[in-house]
User: What shape does this take?
Amino acid sequence: MAPGGAVRYTAGMDLGFETIGNACLIAHDRGPVLATDPWLFGTAYFGSWRLSHAVPAEQQANVRACRYLWISHGHPDHLSLPSLETLRDKTILLADHHGGRIARELRELGFTVQVLPCGEWFPVSDRCRVAALANYNQDATLVIDLDGHLVIDANDAGDRGSSRFLRQQRPRFRKRTVLACLTGYGDADMIHFFDEQGRQVPPAAAQHEPCGPGIKALLDHYDIDYFAPSSSMHRYNRTDSGWADACATPIDAHQLGFDGGRRTCLPAFVQFDLHTGQYERIDPPANDQPLEPPAAHGDDWSTPLERDDVALLRSYLHRVEHLRTFLGHVNFRVGGKDHVVDIAPEHERGITFATPRQSLVAAVSWRAFDDILIGNYCKTTLHGDWWGKQGAAALYPHFTPFVTKFGDNGGAHTAAELRAYFADYLRRGYTEFTPAPDDQEMLAALRPYL
Assistant: This one.
C-alpha cells in the first residue's frame, strides 16, 4: 500500500510513470509518451534469461501507445529485437555513442532512430523532456523531466561521469525525484567460474547480501527521494544456466535492510502518480515455467568447432591489441575439444571458455561476446595469476571492457582507435573517474590511450 492509501490508476494517468518488465519505465503525460528498454516477452542471452514476471496487457498497451522508445544499450535484456519488431511505428531514442553502432544497425533494419546529443534536452511531450548521457562503457543514462519532477533511468550504466550533469541540473528540480538503476545480488554479470581443478568458484551473488543499505547510500549520495528497482527482474531459463537462479534477486529483496527515513524504496513494479506521490504495486504473474534445454535455443554441447570457426575466433581476438599487454592465450573448449588461441606467449596468464559452438560462433559473428558470458552457461576458468583476483573482477578492467565494450560495441580495437574513442568521450565533458577502486583500476588501464 502506498503512503496515504493506495489508489488505482489507469493508462490515462495525468502525470507519472510505471515500472514493469526487466528495465521498462513508462512515462505518462496525459497518457503514455515514452517507454524505456521494452523487453516485453521472450528470452535473452541465447535463451538463458527470461523475464521474472509477465508484462501485463495494460502495460503492453501503454508501451504501444507511446510515441518514443529509449534504448539504453545493446544487451538483449534492454534491446530486445523481438519486442521492437512489434513497435515499428515508434521513434527510437539513443545516446550519441562513439561509433554509432546501435543507431546504424537499427536504421539498417528499417527503424526510425533519433540520436540525442549528450546533455541536451529533447522534448517528448508538452511536459516531458529527456536528456541522454552516453558513457565510455557504451551504456547511457536517461534523465527525464516530467513537469519539474526528476526521474533518472540509469539502468546498468553506473555513474562514470553522469553525476556532472546531475550536479548542474539538480537545483532546478524542487519536486519529486526518482532513481531507477541496477541493484541486486550481482548475477547480472558473468559469474560462472571454475578453478583449474574443475571446482566451481562460489559467486558473491550466492551470498544474498542485502540490497537495502546500498540503495539508501545511493539515494543519500545523489539526494533522491525514491528508488525504483530496475534491470534485475529476470530468471534463468536454460537447464545449463538454471543453477544461477539461486543467485538472482527476488523482486522484494531490494527493500531488505533499507532504512530510508524520508527516502523510499518502491516496489519492483509500480504505478506512480507524480502529482500526489501516491503509488500502487503492479502484481504481474511470475514466469515459473520449467527450464528449457539448450537445444530449444539452438545449442548442443557436443557439437565441435569447424576449421572456419577456429579462424574466426583467432581473428576476433587478435584484433584487440590491448590483450597483448597482459594475456598469453585463450582456450575455447567446445564439443569436448580444446582450441588454444595464442595471444602473447610471453605472458603466463590465460582463460578457458567452455561453451557450446552455436551460440559462441553467433556471439563472435554478431560482435556480442558479452551475451554468452552474461548468460552464465559458459564455464570460465582462469589460468595463472590474475593480480590476486577471481571471477569477473579478474577480467575487469583489462579483458571484458576492451573486448566487448570498446571493441564489439565501440569498434575500437587498436591503440589509435582507442585514443580516438576516449578523446571523443572526454571532449563531451561527462566522463569521470572517481576515487573508487574500480574506477581507478580502469583509469590505470586506459592511461596509454588517454
Notes: The first strand starts at residue 15 and ends at 20. The chain has two domains: 15-292, 307-449. The chain has twelve helices and 23 strands. Residues 307-449 form one domain.
